[in-house]
Write a structure and sequence with these properties.
It is built from 37 helices and 28 strands. The chain has about 900 residues and is of the alpha/beta class.
Length: about 900
């Protein structure tokens, strides 16, 4: 016999999952191990005969072979049926549940636990996979399970899988009329009376911007529908959390029983964890418990106190605001105000008088109206808003949100002691609300799957995945920042790589590139916060070399072949915003906030940040959907103009896509193609003497790509995007160029093998392979462009000279080499060129020429005269300039096969150079 066990006081999710499993396990029976919710009891009064239900007392224990447990992982929630788990003849125990991160005490042979809103969803997915048909009655109870446990898809734990499961159940004939009746049964007269009593006696407390409400009712007995009463009380009192307690005497014994229903909308609170120690449970937003023989008032107060302790500190304006604030004077013209808005991408500007006092705000809409009417010359004071609502740095997010909604305000200046410290915009609020919504889901990280991670869990992740010395270094940096009243964040690639690193059984991660950002502007206007922190860390790690880049407000700590840190590079920057004065220029930077610092980054997967300092240490910032893009394995740019401002981001997009095995998101690819085809890079180089993103920074990106093991795949993708036009508008990666690159690789492999076997210097290619690959690309341009492109990229002088003279050298070799009949003649012609030049000539030449060059560089160039100067002296030749001529002639004779050994060499000398 196969039995499906529902937990005590079964709800619709447990029942719906059990009904679905009865179709997957042919012949299995459903056992309600200890009663059911009132609504479930009422439902079964009409529908019991439609399902494979049996009474617990009718079970023959000797016939049980398999047990399937639904919607719980705890033995004590199975009531007396928990003893069946220990029967000796049990062959398998299977658990289906959707409650994550629970320490199960059931020794299951198989588990099916997933991050969905309802356990029933898991069963629906299996029914679909096995193409099992179900009746409308079965579909209805399963739809009830999903609706009730997900709040009809409105609870945070609900996701797309629940919605798809519901859609399938509707296709199977689930009755929406029945569903509606049981998820909203209406208020009975008894519940209406209790609601009145609750509204007369509830307690309310405002804490950290949230409203907590609780009430204890005395009822003559058990009352069904208390969960609906709690939801209605929460709605009427406009509370963020409600704890509703009902106490009543139990039977003739008079023992008091307490039922507590909890509902919460506060991000970061978890009612399931709050109720579990007392034997209750549920979800983070909705949970319940039932106790006997306790003091109802004391128990409820204990729960309220514990709940208050878990309410997180909401973000304040200090953490949300953008700072410093872009300001203008009242006499600034509308045209100038518009220019400033365009430059910094703002939607409004604060207007201050000569003393710095805030006197107004002018929005983009105000400026657009003035420009529409032809008043570009008019002063801003004629269009600014002077009735300003302001906040302080300690104003909480709920208070900020209320102000914006009440007064329809898009931006709130932050004042401290009358001084303008920052500004909070609608965008700041929306991003934070999105963050809170994502955090409340608490998806976690499982294997390599990426999701929102609670702060404490992310700190554990850091300490678990990072090698111990690296975690200690971050801890030290965090402590130094905290001492100075600053926030410190780990940002960019370090966060990305930690999330993508394998979790189970993997070696600790040794990051070699760490980016830290100090956000200290809320406490001090010192733009050198990052530099100060770097200096403090060097005192703790004297083996590191300190480099300071004042123009960019950054400092770096560098280790070189350190026994602990290897070649670690830590960039420490003050949070900053940036502006590109023209495409491909170096950005102009200014101190700002962490939000604006992340906004200036290239791709969403590199815009992630984790706070290292209390009180919200471990909190992840993801304003642009970077986590979702990590899950989707795609590279997505932050701004449409990103590639126009900085073409090196095209190369970075390709590098990340190939290295991480990600795809470039389609819209991002469109932005790349638009930027390449717009001609902006050609215009930029023509109009500006300096365009670093098309010069040194582009060379660095090319170096990263061309020295990587995946360089061919990356170059192929660059070619597909036509991105080699960033070097020159005529450069295309066609079949001929690929053939030249493949020939180069054969050369490099040959020379690498030979250099391992030979000590002859000429066997080694004297420049790095990446640079030679780059020279091949540039050499593919028309001769008149090569020198300019090489200088533009600021290549080494040898490379520039080689590319400058390549055409001349190639023409001479192609002209003279066919007339060379002897190896010595080939040798005399080619010996004047270095090996990289000969490789460039060979790969661009016809096969006969290429064969002779190849013969020279692999064999003839390594031939040595059979005698040397010492030998000549021993043979009686007087030292002098003639030695060079003698040895050259002897080498030519050796190359041409006239001289084969020492004896023949001496005879040759005596014949041609008598002593």
């Amino acid at each position: 016999m196969d039995l499906i066990l529902c937990h005590t006081t079964a709800d619709f999710d447990a029942l719906g999952a059990a009904v679905g499993l009865s179709r997957l396990w042919a012949g299995a029976k459903i056992v309600l191990t200890g009663g059911s919710h009132p609504a479930v009891k009422d439902f079964l009064a009409l529908h019991r005969d439609e399902y494979a239900l049996i009474e617990r007392r009718s079970v023959n224990l000797k016939q049980i072979r398999s047990l399937i447990v639904v919607d719980t992982q705890h033995r004590d929630r199975l009531g007396a049926a928990a003893e069946w788990l220990d029967l000796p003849q049990i062959e398998q125990i299977v658990v289906y549940d959707h409650h994550l991160e629970i320490d199960s005490d059931i020794s299951a042979t198989a588990t099916h636990i997933a991050d969905v809103g309802a356990t029933t969803t898991l069963i629906v997915e299996e029914l679909q996979a096995q193409q099992v048909e179900i009746t409308s009655f079965e579909a209805t109870v399963m739809a009830l399970g999903i609706h009730v446990d997900t709040g009809s898809l409105s609870f945070d734990q609900a996701n797309h899988r629940d919605a798809l499961a519901l859609a399938w159940l509707m296709q199977q004939g689930a009755s929406l009329h029945v569903v509606r009746d049981y998820i909203d049964p209406g208020f009975s007269p008894q519940l209406q009376a209790l609601l009145t009593e609750a509204l007369d006696n509830f307690h309310c407390d405002r804490l950290r911007g949230y409203t907590v409400t609780w009430v204890l009712l005395k009822t003559p007995g058990y009352v069904s529908g208390l969960s609906s009463l709690a939801a209605r009380l929460m709605e009427l009192t406009e509370s963020d959390t409600v704890l509703l307690g009902a106490r009543y005497a139990l039977g003739e014994s008079g023992e008091e029983r307490l039922t507590v229903i909890g509902r919460s909308q506060i991000p970061g609170t978890n009612l399931n964890e709050l109720f579990q120690p007392l034997g209750g449970g549920g979800h983070s937003q909705a949970a319940s418990l039932s106790l006997r023989g306790v003091d109802g008032q004391a128990t409820l107060q204990h729960l309220v106190d514990r709940l208050k302790a878990t309410i997180p500190h909401p973000p304040t304006a200090r953490e949300l605001m953008s700072s410093p604030v872009r300001t203008i004077r009242p006499d600034t013209t509308i045209a100038e105000a518009q220019r400033i808005l365009l430059r910094y991408g703002h939607s409004g500007l604060s207007v201050v008088d000569p003393t710095g006092k805030l006197v107004g705000i002018i929005s983009r809409r105000d400026i657009d109206i003035a420009l529409h009417h032809g008043f570009s010359h008019a002063p801003a004071k004629g269009y600014m808003t002077t009735n300003i609502k302001t906040i302080t740095p300690d104003t909480t997010l709920p208070e900020i949100q209320a102000l914006m909604v009440t007064y329809d305000i898009g931006r709130l200046p932050v004042l401290q002691d009358g001084e303008l410290r920052g500004i909070v915009t609608r965008t700041d609020v929306l991003r934070e609300l999105h963050q809170e919504g994502a955090r409340s889901e608490e998806l976690g990280v499982r294997g390599n799957a990426v999701g929102i991670i609670p702060p404490a869990a992310f700190l554990r992740l850091l300490s678990d995945r990072l090698a111990a010395p690296f975690w200690q270094l971050l801890t030290q940096a965090s402590a130094q920042a905290e001492q100075r009243g600053w926030h410190l964040y780990l940002v960019g690639g370090g966060v990305r790589d930690l999330l993508l690193a394998k979790q189970n059984g993997a070696a600790p991660l040794y990051l070699q590139d760490i980016d830290l950002v100090v956000d200290g502007f809320h406490r001090t206007a010192d733009v050198g916060a990052g530099v100060e922190l770097a200096r403090a860390l060097q005192q703790l790690y004297p083996a590191a070399r300190l480099e300071i880049h004042g123009a960019f407000q950054t400092a770096a700590l560098l280790w070189h072949k350190d026994p602990i840190f290897g070649s670690l590079w830590i960039d420490i920057a003050t949070a900053r915003t940036e502006f590109y004065p023209y495409p491909a220029a170096n950005p102009e930077v200014e101190a700002s906030s962490i939000r604006q610092d992340l906004y200036r980054r290239d791709f969403t997967i590199n815009s992630l940040a984790v706070r290292l300092t209390p009180p919200r240490a471990g909190e992840m910032l993801d304003f642009f959907g970077g986590l979702l893009d990590l899950q989707a394995k795609q590279i997505r740019v932050l701004h449409p103009n990103s590639f126009i401002e900085d073409p090196t981001r095209i190369y970075r997009a390709v590098r990340f896509a190939v290295r991480l095995e990600f795809a470039i998101e389609p819209q991002t690819e469109n932005y790349i193609r638009y930027a390449v085809n717009s001609g902006v890079y050609k215009r930029t180089q023509g109009n500006n003497s300096r365009a670093p993103a098309l010069q040194t920074r582009l060379k660095n990106e090319l170096k990263y790509i061309l020295q990587a093991p995946y360089w061919q795949a990356a170059l192929s993708l660059l070619g597909d995007l036509d991105a080699l036009q960033c070097l020159h508008e005529t450069l295309k990666l066609d079949k001929t160029l690929w053939q030249q690159l493949r020939f180069l690789e054969r050369c490099l492999r040959r020379f690498n093998r030979e250099s391992q076997k030979s000590k002859v210097k000429s066997q080694n290619v004297p420049i790095p392979p990446w640079l030679l690959r780059l020279e091949v690309l540039i050499a593919y341009l028309a001769p008149e462009y090569r020198d300019r492109v090489a200088q533009n990229l600021q290549l080494p002088d040898d490379s520039i000279n080689r590319l400058r003279h390549l055409q001349q050298a190639q023409e001479r070799v192609l002209t003279v080499l066919p007339s060379c009949r002897l190896p010595s003649q080939v040798f005399d012609l080619l010996r004047q060129y270095d090996l990289p030049m000969l490789i460039l000539i060979a790969l661009r030449s016809p096969r006969p020429t290429r064969s002779l060059v190849w013969q020279y560089v692999t064999h003839w160039a390594n031939v040595q005269p059979l005698l040397n100067g010492y030998d000549l002296k021993q043979l009686g030749y007087k030292p002098g300039p003639q030695y060079r001529q003698i040895l050259d002639d002897l080498l030519a004779a050796t190359l041409d096969g006239i001289v084969r050994d020492r004896t023949e060499a001496e005879s040759y000398l005596f014949e041609h150079y008598p002593r």
